[in-house]
Amino acid sequence: MFFKKKPPTPATPATRAEQRAQYRKRNTKSTPLEATLRAPKWDPLRVELVDLSVRGACIRVAFAQDRNLKVDDLVELSIGSMMRNEVQTAARVANITRDGESHIRYGLQFVNVNNLYAQLDGFYARHFNRRRNARVVPSLDRKVQVKARWAGEEVSGHVFDISASGIGIVLTKDSSARIADVPALELTLRLPGSAIECAGRATIRHRTPLNQHTLIGLEFELGDEAGFARHAAEIASFVDKRTQEMNQWEKSWG
Length: 254
Prior knowledge:
This protein is α+β, with helices and mostly antiparallel strands. The chain contains five helices and 13 strands. The strands form two sheets. The protein has a six-stranded antiparallel β-barrel with strand order 2-3-4-7-6-5.
């Protein structure tokens, strides 16, 4: 279904900026998540989920149940909670470390971000996407259009998620190729239910390839009072409202 072993490639140490790009959420007893590992030629194995982010996960396996995985092997990880549908995603083994005298840890990097995002409801999004500022996604029936400008050029896309400090926008492959060397963009968007058009400059922090699109992560330049700083209350209000909606939705499934 999904297993082809990739040839080994030299590991590149992550920079401090890359390490901080996603804040991992440790699995806790108050919000337990269960994880199952599927590897080629092995039966599915329930594993301990140590931590999690939208980029990857760390799992813990007893030596007696170790699947003898190697760096760059492809596996599938299923993550679930109570009666919710499991999130299933392909992953690459990024690193392997010994954990004491009886366990081994595998660091996994998710390889199909588009498929993963499509499975995340409000409950799972909070576990996979922990940040210093609450970040929410617009409701599926209220797609938020965004225009991105630079040096007299312009492309259009839609908002994937937004917080008080930044935004993720989805562009086509062609549009993202046009901004390959652009460090910052002037954004314009109107949040659902708002009569105010938000506009300002944002710095590109990461580019994540999806199937037919690219997710561009940007940080608002809040030092400019004429930019997104003047829309802080508007954005905070939207984030709070969507957080309440997602919490209410979660309770309805509790």
